[in-house]
Recover the amino acids of this structure.
């Protein structure tokens, strides 16, 4: 089925940016990438495709983004997702992890069109690694359910998707689309992306790690 036109609806975009980057050993969102930071790629893609912009996590100095605190300290990306859906209030929310340096506008436009086929359910790409809940469209109406699951001790987004109705869209077999989902968790991922070791802590291109806002905490990697 061909996804319909995404331009008929207003969109909220949410960046999930509260991870502690423990495996990377530093804030991976601030690593230098093609003249900017890693986080700036998904942020720019959201800014080009969405009417309202949210960042769940610390203030990363992203123009136009409203910074919101995760719903529960130390609870992983689900806490950021639940907070973003609650802040959005209504309608569809394009949700992206902050560590997607290959993310671009074309991927989000495809995702938005796919989401309009069944706007009341999460629209989740199915890529080579399986479902991608942090490069997906989530209806804001699920905010309360996700918050309840968070309070009950659930954390794994993959498990939650297995338990709620959603629509999985096969990722188009294109290199650029696959590259959009390539994330960064550990130094080997950075070397695979760039062919270089991680920059040292004194590297002049390495952005300074921001201080979390009150109520925003280091948490698990969003991938």
């Amino acid at each position: 089925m061909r996804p319909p036109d995404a331009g008929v609806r207003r969109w909220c975009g949410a960046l999930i940016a509260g991870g502690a980057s423990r495996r990377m050993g530093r804030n991976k969102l601030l690593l230098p990438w093609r003249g900017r930071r890693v986080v700036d790629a998904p942020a720019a893609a959201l800014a080009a495709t969405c009417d309202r912009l949210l960042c769940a996590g610390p203030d990363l100095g992203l123009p136009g983004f409203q910074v919101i605190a995760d719903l529960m300290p130390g609870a992983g990306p689900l806490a950021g997702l639940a907070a973003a859906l609650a802040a959005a209030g209504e309608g569809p929310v394009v949700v992206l992890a902050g560590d997607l340096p290959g993310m671009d506008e074309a991927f989000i436009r495809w995702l938005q069109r796919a989401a309009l086929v069944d706007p009341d359910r999460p629209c989740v790409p199915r890529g080579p690694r399986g479902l991608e809940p942090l490069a997906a469209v989530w209806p804001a109406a699920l905010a309360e359910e996700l918050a309840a699951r968070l309070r009950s001790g659930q954390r794994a987004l993959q498990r939650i998707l297995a338990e709620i109705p959603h629509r999985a869209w096969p990722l188009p077999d294109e290199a650029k689309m696959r590259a959009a989902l390539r994330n960064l968790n550990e130094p080997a991922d950075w070397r695979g992306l760039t062919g270089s070791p991680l920059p040292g802590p004194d590297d002049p291109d390495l952005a300074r790690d921001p201080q979390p806002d009150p109520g925003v905490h280091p948490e698990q990697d969003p991938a």
In short: The chain has one domain: 17-191. The first strand starts at residue 12 and ends at 16. Residues 17-191 form a domain with the Spore Coat Polysaccharide Biosynthesis Protein SpsA; Chain A fold (CATH 3.90.550.10).
